[in-house]
Design brief:
Elements lengths: L1 H4 L4 E11 L2 E9 L1 H31 L5 H21 L3 H19 L14 H30 L6 H14 L1 H18 L8 H4 L5 H10 L4 H8 L1 H4 L3 H23 L4 H21 L3 H46 L5 H9 L16 H4 L1 H15 L5 H16 L1 H26 L6 H4 L6 H16 L12 H10 L9 H23 L10 H6 L3 H8 L4 H80 L4 H21 L1
Antiparallel strand pairs: 1-2
Helix pairs in contact: 2-3, 2-9, 2-14, 2-21, 3-4, 4-5, 5-7, 6-7, 7-10, 7-12, 9-14, 10-13, 12-13, 12-19, 12-25, 13-14, 13-18, 13-19, 14-17, 14-18, 14-21, 14-22, 17-19, 17-21, 18-19, 18-23, 19-23
């Protein structure tokens, strides 16, 4: 780390891998300022998530009565971290791809950890389907990454090592810029898959099916940041083709705004944070697309702090509501058992009325939790203010650095991100008012309990980082620490000063959004059974809120345009082509008919009757003739035997003479 701070690149060759002709690929790890930054984030935040997971999963596996899975969960979790460390420390695109695929596999295992049930603990394949959705969607993105790798290998010197690729790219860009554009755009497809950008973002909200520590690990410090890291590591490629940079920047900006609108209409506490993650990843992708690599990495680091804090705090809320729900059930059970004169059947029937399906993650079941879970409330508030970009929290400094760069070079990106920032503050304010303020809208919220220290202690560390993390790269002379750190790897780094106009606009918009959310959700808190106040506010334009609530029907669109036609094609191929054509007609008529004809005409009539039968009959007739002939010699006359002996002697003498 000290050497990396002085601009040195440390390479450690662990083992030889592929040596074929001029192609030499080794297991070589790279330590520079960029990989060190990522490794510190992954290992640091990952460690806090591990500590949190000990307490969280202990209750989870006990609740589901499968204690043996406790060890399996941590096996998957550590493998996830290991794959991410390979991804960020590999010295070639091929090693990066190994880690890339590794985190994809581990996300499948972790998202579907409770594969035989849904998020409410009921027997279902919902979690399993969510894991498959994540895996398949990422395979689409990985296909683009593979195409980029093939083009890279073919045109850029038969090498995947970073430095060799970058040197060859400079020469190719001068004569064949289209090749570099193709490589970078296909690489963007991979980025869209891993970092959940339009159109491949659909897997990430469903990843909430995994245990909360998984959500925090995937959405804060590991898998979703892989795409941002890939573009940053490939900065020397993207800087050669401004056209590709513009596409990347616009993809990120549009994703940021689009996901923010969906977050406004969600009711699941983790789903709001999931769409928030997609939106914030859009900020990062837009930043690195504009060439503001330090700003993108800065936001990646601060986002890891406050988004991990928010997800883990959401897990604390869910645990508190689950305990409150169990407490309420016991109270009702005891009350029913205390009623005298009732038969057991009547008691059971009466108790069953309280056995409704309860979702501890639904914000409509919450309310008033600041009273019952004060520690979690204040920790959640810190994460919310950081995400909303309120000064002096970490999110303010990193977000505003991106907005400043966009205002100077990409006006369209700036306005898209500014609107997204406003909506971010609004939906986080909405969440705070619905979860922690007002009165409890469910007995579980009324009886919720604060989480244990093993749950809240890691949150306090993350809260401190969310508050102070902006100090990593303050926009003042002498405080561009992260910029100076990364300039050894990224080379051309522009240190931007604080722009009061940009910062002022974003701060005013964020505060206005929080006030607006209070006006809608805080002033008159949501009551049990009430529709969302924002829907009422839209009035005749309520279809807009319906669109946000239903994720703009994108999943339904994918089903209508891609999945259902593909299913119909599959059924057609299986039923019509495979079964009816191949099995019923071709197999039964052509193959079986030809076989029967050959068997009857050629084999039976000709080969069997005229060939095999004739041979067998001829063999019998020949044996009879030979027997009759030999029998004539054995007639009992001495002269016949003497003649035979004479012929034998003559033959033997003739043979000896001729020999």
């Amino acid at each position: 780390t000290v050497s990396a701070a002085h601009g040195e690149v440390i390479r450690w060759k662990l083992a030889e891998w592929i040596h074929i002709g001029s192609l030499e690929l080794d297991w070589t790890f790279r330590l520079d300022s960029l990989s060190t930054t990522m490794m510190l984030v992954v290992s640091g935040v990952g460690t806090l998530i591990h500590i949190y997971a000990i307490g969280y999963m202990h209750e989870d596996v006990r609740f589901k009565h499968q204690e043996g899975r406790f060890r399996i969960f941590f096996l998957y979790l550590n493998l996830f971290i290991a794959m991410m460390m390979i991804l960020v420390s590999g010295d070639s695109y091929l090693m990066l791809f190994v880690g890339w695929e590794g985190v994809g596999l581990c996300s499948f295992l972790l998202i579907g950890f409770w594969f035989e049930m849904d998020t409410l603990g009921r027997s279902s394949w919902a979690n399993s389907n969510a894991a498959k959705k994540a895996f398949i969607t990422n395979r689409v993105g990985d296909f683009g990454f593979l195409i980029a790798g093939f083009l890279m290998f073919w045109y850029l010197g038969n090498s995947f090592q970073f430095d060799h690729v970058f040197e060859a790219a400079k020469e190719v860009a001068a004569t064949q810029p289209g090749v570099i554009i193709a490589i970078t755009l296909f690489m963007l497809v991979g980025v869209a898959g891993k970092s959940a950008q339009i159109p491949l973002y659909i897997w990430l909200p469903d990843a909430m099916a995994g245990p909360t520590p998984v959500s925090a690990l995937i959405h804060a410090a590991t898998m979703v940041t892989a795409g941002v890291y890939l573009v940053t590591r490939s900065a020397e490629l993207y800087m050669l083709v401004p056209q590709a940079q513009y596409v990347v920047a616009m993809t990120g900006a549009v994703t940021a705004l689009f996901a923010a609108t969906i977050a406004v209409g969600q009711y699941d506490i983790k789903k709001v944070l999931a769409y928030s993650t997609i939106s914030q990843l859009g900020f990062m992708v837009a930043a690195v697309g504009m060439g503001a690599f330090v700003a993108g990495m800065f936001h990646l680091v601060t986002h890891a702090f406050f988004k991990a804090l928010l997800f883990l705090s959401a897990g604390s809320v869910i645990l508190g509501l689950e305990r409150g729900h169990h407490h309420a059930e016991h109270v009702h059970h005891d009350a029913h058992n205390g009623k005298k004169g009732k038969k057991k059947e009547e008691q059971h029937e009466s108790h069953g009325g309280h056995g409704e399906v309860f979702d501890p993650g639904d914000m409509r079941n919450m309310g008033g939790l600041r009273k019952t879970m004060p520690v979690t409330f204040w920790l959640y508030m810190i994460g919310t203010l950081a995400l909303a970009g309120i000064v002096p929290f970490a999110g303010f400094w990193s977000k505003d650095e991106i907005l400043l760069d966009a205002s100077l070079h990409y006006p369209q990106v700036y306005w898209l991100l500014t609107i997204a920032a406003f909506m971010t503050a609004f939906y986080m304010g909405r969440q705070i008012w619905m979860v922690f303020f007002g009165e409890a809208r469910h007995e579980a919220a009324a009886h919720a309990e604060e989480s244990k220290p093993i749950i809240t202690a890691p949150l306090m560390v993350l809260a401190a980082l969310s508050l102070l993390g902006g100090g990593l790269n303050l926009p003042f002379e002498g405080f561009h620490n992260l910029g100076h750190w990364l300039e050894y790897t990224l080379h051309e780094v522009e240190a931007l000063p604080l722009d009061l106009k940009v910062a002022g606009i974003s701060t005013v918009l964020a505060l206005s959004a929080i006030v607006l959310s209070w006006f809608i959700y805080g002033r008159n808190p949501l009551k049990v059974g009430q529709p969302d106040p924002l829907r009422r506010l839209f009035g005749p334009l309520g279809f807009i809120f319906t669109g946000m609530e239903n994720k703009w029907f994108v999943d339904e669109g994918y089903f209508a345009v891609i999945i259902n036609p593909f299913k119909k094609l599959s059924y057609f191929l299986a039923d019509v082509i495979d079964w009816r054509f191949w099995h019923d007609w071709f197999h039964e008529t052509v193959i079986a008919g030809t076989y029967n004809w050959v068997s009857e005409i050629a084999l039976n009539r000709y080969a069997d009757q005229r060939g095999i039968d004739a041979f067998a009959n001829g063999l019998g007739s020949g044996t009879q003739w030979l027997s009759a002939t030999v029998r004539k010699v054995q007639n009992g006359f001495v002269r016949s035997y003497a003649l035979s002996v004479l012929l034998g002697v003559v033959l033997i003498l003739g043979y000896l003479i001729l020999k």
